[in-house]
Amino acid sequence: MDWLSIVSGAFIGTTCMTAFSYVYSWLRQKPFKEPALLNDLMAQLGVLKSQPSENNILGWVIHYGVGVLFLISYHFVWQIVHVIPEAWHYTIAGAVSGIVGIAIWSMVFNHYLILKPEERSEYFFQLEIAHIIFGVTSYLVESIF
Length: 145
Hints:
Layout: H1 3-28, H2 34-44, H3 57-80, H4 87-111, H5 120-144
C-alpha cells in the first residue's frame, strides 16, 4: 500500500465531497454539512459544549479521519480479492461507502435530534452523491501517484 497516495486521495476526496455538501446545503438552504453535523452529535454526546461552532475542529478531524479509513478499507478489500482497482471500482466503493454512511447516520438520527425527520431523505440522497464524488476523486488523485 502506498500510504502517501492513500492519504492524499482520502484528503482530496473528502475535500471534494465536503465541497459538494456545502454547495448543496447552500443551494437548498439545508443543514447538510457533515463536519457541522458531527459537531452537533459530539455536543449531544457531551464531548463538546452545547452550542459548538460549525467550524469546530473536532467535526473536521472526524470527517477526514473517516475518509482515510474508507480509502484504506477499499485497498484492503482489493488486496484480499486480488484486484488492481480501476475507476469503476472506486465509483462502486464510493457508492457502497455512501450506503454505509446512510446506515450509520440513520442510526444516529434515530437516537439524536440532529436533522429534522423531514430533511433526512434529502440528506441521504446528497450523501450518496457526495460519497460517489469521494470515490471518483480518490481514484483520480491516486492515479497521479
